[in-house]
């Protein structure tokens, strides 16, 4: 089965090119004002055009209202929406129906009980994304570069479509894939040289590490 790979928080043509050349299935754009990865919808729209159909362009939002979503959808034209806040199942259904776009719902995980919170979203969200809980004091619901215990995902239905996220990087992705064999993975700060600054070399190293883990060859 092919592994979905999302590189999130992209802001430049060079790093988008590195993500696509490496084999990213998804590229993510962050619309959360406090994030160092924040991008204006119009800028994301221009970058998204350069992506063409080579990867799915994902708009990441946090409890966004209709006006914010209208602007993002009309200016960026995403292929998918990632709802990374406390959006209810009803809100996910409403957004999905109104924009006619697939929705990935993010959940923060630190214990087994957190995984049961996805149940009301079955049949509503198209995919799930499991991220770590933000560290105390962080203003960001995602992009914190912290991991959770990946073994928690071993109890999930093998047919569940999700991305493993949170603190992944070229050094630990092999272990993450081995431990929970996820259908998809997502990385942001693990391929950065500073908060919000993606690094082409780190993006390439991440893909090499994924390939090495999947083929058993050295990275
Ligand atoms: O990345 C952000 O700054 C961000 C801000 C607000 C909501 C979500 C955000 N990121 C969402 C993602 O999908 C990240 O890739 C995910 O949280 C993993 O980040 P990291 O642990 O840095 O790899």
From TrEMBL:
GO terms for molecular function: phosphoribosylanthranilate isomerase activity. The keyword Cell cycle does not apply. One of its GO terms (biological process) is L-tryptophan biosynthetic process. Residues 5-208 form the N-(5'phosphoribosyl) anthranilate isomerase (PRAI) domain. The keyword Amino-acid biosynthesis applies. It catalyses: N-(5-phospho-beta-D-ribosyl)anthranilate = 1-(2-carboxyphenylamino)-1-deoxy-D-ribulose 5-phosphate. Keywords: Amino-acid biosynthesis, Aromatic amino acid biosynthesis, Isomerase, Tryptophan biosynthesis. Pfam families: PRAI. Its EC number is 5.3.1.24. Pathway: Amino-acid biosynthesis; L-tryptophan biosynthesis; L-tryptophan from chorismate: step 3/5. PANTHER family: N-(5'-PHOSPHORIBOSYL)ANTHRANILATE ISOMERASE (PTHR42894). Belongs to the TrpF family. HAMAP family: PRAI (MF_00135). This is N-(5'-phosphoribosyl)anthranilate isomerase.
